[in-house]
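Query structure, 89 tokens:
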């Protein structure tokens, strides 16, 4: 089967944890078995305070992740307050 490529645009992707991370992570976990390669464009690691590093273990090795850092008001607020890493866990 020929490999097809899917571009996914989302805000939350591991290690960020939030409202939509599990649905997108599920797509990237299961689509390779059906002949799809995934590229994910998402927020930078410092753009949100809720993180779950254990989710990184579920990201398939062939998934390309492109992070667009600093594009939100939340990331600016976190930088100004100096708490960008406060939610690691």
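Result returned for the query:
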């Amino acid at each position: 089967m020929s490999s097809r490529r899917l571009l996914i645009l989302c805000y939350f992707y591991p290690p960020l944890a939030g409202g939509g991370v599990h649905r997108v992570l599920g797509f990237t976990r299961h689509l390779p078995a059906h002949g799809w390669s995934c590229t994910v464009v998402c927020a930078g690691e410092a753009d949100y305070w809720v993180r779950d590093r254990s989710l990184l273990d579920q990201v398939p090795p062939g998934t390309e992740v492109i992070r667009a850092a600093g594009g939100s008001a939340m990331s600016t607020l976190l930088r100004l307050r100096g708490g960008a890493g406060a939610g690691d866990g």
